[in-house]
Amino acid sequence: KAGVTQTPRYLIKTRGQQVTLSCSPISGHRSVSWYQQTPGQGLQFLFEYFSETQRNKGNFPGRFSGRQFSNSRSEMNVSTLELGDSALYLCASNSGTSGLQETQYFGPGTRLLVL
Amino acid sequence: GQNIDQPTEMTATEGAIVQINCTYQTSGFNGLFWYQQHAGEAPTFLSYNVLDGLEEKGRFSSFLSRSKGYSYLLLKELQMKDSASYLCAVRDRGNTGKLIFGQGTTLQVKP
């Protein structure tokens, strides 16, 4: 099985712009979660999508949004970029069931630099 | 509130054994994960505990005590390539896709 893929891998934007990041989960996985990782705050949960619906949301401003398509691919969007949005954005997938043995697997991440 | 604590840094010698501790206080609990993350790379899954006790997987073992809100990751026969950050994460109850992470422990293995 192919792993979690994310595109693009690197991105440079300027303040005020918007950005869209893409994630394709492991085949058969229906849940996609997004995280932001910065040196100061560590890994922080952004949101989770399951069957095209946002199932859970972290404590990020409304500038951060996402969606999921019928093939389980997900995108996240950040509007009106700020310098503090520079981070590694990680996508993770799991099957989305409530099984106790559920494991979450991460993609390689998109490194965003806001200038 | 949600709080997960790990030591910030640890140093150990090649061939030795190291134990990385994690304590947590979360509003819900549905399992505890350990991930390894090398600099500039994504986290890779190491272990998962949902019941009390020790889970062994090769050179890596993970322990969980739910009553104490405590876990540890044990690395045996340390190798230089084990130098990395180790992340402890708790899965929120009823939310399979939401993990709450600690700040991570940076382990440096010296020859």
Q: What is the number of helical segments of chain A per DSSP (H or I, 4+ residues)?
A: 0
Report the C-alpha radius of gyration of chain B, rounded. 13 Å
Class per helix and strand makeup of chain B: mainly beta
Shape of chain B: globular
Helix percent of chain A reads under 10%
Q: Which two chains share the most extensive interface? A: A-B, 30 and 26 residues
Mean pLDDT value of chain B? 93
Mean pLDDT of chain A: 91
Shape of chain A: globular
Structural class of chain A: mainly beta
| Poorly predicted spans of chain B | none
How much helical structure, as a percent, in the residues of chain B?
under 10%
The biggest sheet of chain B amounts to: 6 strands, mixed
End-to-end gap of chain A: 37 Å
Tally of DSSP β-strands of chain A: 11
Distance between the termini of chain B: 40 Å
Folded structure, characterized:
Chain A is an all-beta fold. Helix content of chain A is 0%, strand content 52%. In chain A, strands 2, 4, 5, 6, 9, 10 and 11 form a seven-stranded mixed β-sheet that branches. In chain A, strand 5 (42-50) and strand 6 form a beta hairpin. Chain A starts with a strand and ends with a strand. The model of chain A has no long low-confidence stretch (mean pLDDT 91). Chain B is an all-beta fold. Chain B is built from no helices and eleven strands. The mean pLDDT of chain B is 93. The A-B interface holds A 31-33, 35, 42-45, 48, 50, 55-56, 58, 90, 92, 94, 96-109 and B 30-31, 33, 35, 41-45, 48, 50, 87, 89, 91-92, 94-104.
Break the fold down into its secondary structure elements and pairings.
The complex is a heterodimer of chains A (115) and B (111).
Chain A: E1 5-7, E2 10-13, E3 19-24, E4 31-38, E5 42-50, E6 53-57, E7 64-68, E8 74-78, E9 87-94, E10 105-106, E11 110-114
Parallel strand pairs in A: 2-11
Antiparallel strand pairs in A: 1-3, 3-8, 4-5, 4-9, 5-6, 7-8, 9-10, 9-11
Chain B: E1 3-5, E2 9-13, E3 18-25, E4 32-37, E5 44-49, E6 53-57, E7 60-65, E8 70-75, E9 84-91, E10 99-101, E11 105-110
Parallel strand pairs in B: 2-11
Antiparallel strand pairs in B: 1-3, 3-8, 4-5, 4-9, 6-7, 7-8, 9-10, 9-11
